[in-house]
Amino acid sequence: MRVxxxxxxxxxxxxxxxIGTRPTMDRVKESLFGTIQNYxxxxxxxxxxxxxxxxxxxxxxxxxxECYFVDNGPKIKKYLQTNLKSVENAIFLNMDYKQALNxxxxxxxxxxxxxxxxxxxEHLINYSLELINNYNLLNHDGIVVCEYVxxxxxxxxxxxxxxxxxxxxxxxxxxxx
Length: 177
Known about the structure:
By secondary structure, this protein is an alpha/beta fold.
C-alpha cells in the first residue's frame, strides 16, 4: 500500500495487513481525492479512526496544512507511528475517539476535513457525527468523509456525495451552517 499522489507519492505504508484494518483501496482513494481536492489545500484535517493513516497522509501529501491522527488500537499504533515518520505536520493522538473529540473541543481545535472510517461492526459513525456537531468541530464549509458498510447514517450536514465501492459506501457531508 502506497501514497498515491502529491509530495509523498510512492511512500510505502505499513500495517495494511494487520487484522482489523481495512485500508481504503487505491482506486477508491483516487476517486475520493478527486472529489475532495478543492477542500485540501491548507486544510486542517482529522483522521479519527486512523488505522494506517492512509487518508490523512494522502491529505498532507496533497497540500493539507496539518492532520491529527487518532487511533487507540494497540496493534496498529507502531505501524501508524512508522507511517508518520518523515510526514510533516502530522500529530498522533493515541486515545479513544470520544476522548479525542472532547480534547479538540476543550482546546478549540476545529477542522476543514474529518475522515470517519471506524470499525464497521461497531457502527460508530452516527455517534461520532453527533459529537462533532455538538462540539462544533467542523468548520463552515468543512467536510466529513464517512466510510461504512451497513450503517444507516443520520446527519445534520448536507450530503454532497454518496458512492458505493464494492460492499462499502463513502458519503461526503458538508457543513453549510
